[in-house]
Fold this sequence. Notes:
There is one protein chain. The protein is built from 13 helices and 13 strands. Strand 12 (276-278), helix 11 and strand 13 form a beta-alpha-beta unit. The chain is α/β, with parallel strands linked by helices. The protein has 2 domains: 4-171 and 322-334, 3-Layer(aba) Sandwich (Rossmann fold); 181-309, 3-Layer(aba) Sandwich (Rossmann fold). It has helices at residues 13-19, 46-52, 67-85, 97-108, 128-139, 148-156, 172-180, 199-214, 245-254, 263-271, 286-290, 301-306, 325-334; strands at 4-10, 29-35, 58-59, 89-93, 113-118, 142-145, 166-168, 191-195, 219-223, 237-240, 258-260, 276-278, 294-296. 45% of the residues are buried.
Amino acid sequence: MGRNTSVTIVGTRPQFIKIASLNLDEDEVDNFVVHTGQHYDYGLSRQFWKLNKKEPDHVLDCASHDPTIQMKFLLDQIAPILIHRKPDYVIVVGDCNSTLGGALTAELLKIPVIHIESGLRSGDRTMPEERNRLLVDHIAQVNFCIYYEDKLQLLSEKCQSGNRNTHVVGDIMYDSMVSFIDRTVPMLGNYYLATVHREKNANEHIEEILDGLNALGRLVVFPKHPRIKIEKKYENIEFLKPVDYVSMLSLQLGADMIFTDSGGVGREAVWLGKPCVLLRENTEFRNFVESGHVILAGHSKKAITESEFADWPSEPCNHKQDGHAGQRIAEVIYGL
């Protein structure tokens, strides 16, 4: 009996970080990694591959600012790879367009789909990420969840993975953070850290968000996503080019507070014991809000500035991660 074969499809920086901890044994699984090119900027893509010392096996050209055109690119370019390789299953991670494109292509070709980071729900269907994860969760034959509550969500929606093939494994992103944390050098200085990348914030609310950050009581370090256009000067914001993962962790470790609309950066902030202001009105990680370790500020300048004086919990968050999610995922995959 030969090894199982798989194709893992990723396309964005958070996905590159997550699959760094999906160390599938080559004796068990012949895993072929496809980078869709969704994040084409060097700081969001190639820097991380270089850091991890593992290049993708194939790189596509699916970058586009129009999601409908991007989905067409994904279907057109992923399909020939899957037809040629004939994998036993396709692995997708998270909730970006590459996740949906990979899952949908595999479904059309009748190849089983494995989805890592399933069952998360913000309740906001206007978010592309929410629509993507809903669709992928229902396409997937095997779903891996971070929390037991996420599994209950999938069971309530009657996803085809059912109880047997829906597994609670923990957060693979925590595994990656732990594995890279020893390479960091915490930045010195009194500063806050901010990131913005979500479509509505970057395109519609960025000026109000930047005005709020600029009004805070200290310098705000802001690694700028390529889609953000700066229309005026901000005295208290230092804009940086996109940084690699270890540099980002170093910035987070040195920051006194973190402002972000990123699910990944928000989780890392909690894990690192940093007060986190989420620049969203909802979140798929409600447990962090309920524990008081994350505040929802949306894009309101008033809410952003007021959050600086919030009463944060004195105890660290019990996030329930142990750094072995990737190992649990691998063990299930070996048994497929």
